[in-house]
Amino acid sequence: STQDLDHQLGIRLNPSTAFHPQTDGQSKIANKAIKQYLPHFIRHHQNELLPNSEFSHDNQDQISTCISPFKENYGFKLSYSRVPSPEQFLPAVKEHLKKLSEVQE
Q1: Does an H or E element contain 94, and which?
Q2: Is the distance from CB of 70 to CB of 78 less than 8 angstroms?
Q3: DSSP single-letter state for residue 41
Q4: Which of 81, 71, 64, 79 minimizes the C-alpha distance to 28?
Q5: Is residue 91 classed as helix, strand or coil in its secondary structure?
Q6: Packing angle of the helix pair 46-59, 26-37 (nearest 10 deg)
Q7: Which helix (H) or strand (E) holds 54?
Q8: How far apart are CA 84 and CA 80, in angstroms?
Q9: Quick one: which of 31, 13, 33, 32 has its CA closest to 23?
Q10: How far is the C-alpha of 15 from the C-alpha of 21, rounded, in Å?
Q11: Residue 81 has what pLDDT?
Q12: What CA–CA distance (Å, rounded) separates 59 from 101?
């Protein structure tokens, strides 16, 4: 039976329902972590920052698995430079200066 196979493979099932998805507190812990860092990404330009928030979360080792969701899915951990390359940075600066000029006019 499936239960015997699960037992032999060391799989511990925790069935849940749509109304009570937390079976081991893992969802509660994940939600707490997201509540802590998400406010730092919600600002005037939040649409630009939320992908960084998702990247940060997906690249952070989780307490329950001791591995990041990204590494768990793809087999490697992403790394990136916090300093944008000139190609990435200059268009944003130009756009910002353009907006400042428009406001001043």
Answers
A1: helix 86-104
A2: yes
A3: T
A4: 64
A5: helix
A6: 140
A7: helix 46-59
A8: 9
A9: 13
A10: 9
A11: 60
A12: 38
Structure tokens at 93: 């600066």
Mean pLDDT of 36-62: 77
The residue behind tokens 């919600």 is 42
Q: Which amino acid is at 73?
A: N
Phi, then psi, of 79 in degrees rounded to 5: -135, 150
Range 74-99 average pLDDT:
71
C-alpha to C-alpha distance for 40 and 72, rounded to whole angstroms? 26
For residues 68 and 39, give the distance between their C-alpha atoms in angstroms, rounded to a whole number: 21
Per-residue tokens: 29: 């812990």
- The per-residue pLDDT for 15 is 72
Q: Are 15 and 23 in contact (CB under 8 A)?
A: yes
Residue 18 has pLDDT above 60, yes or no: yes
Residue type, 33: A
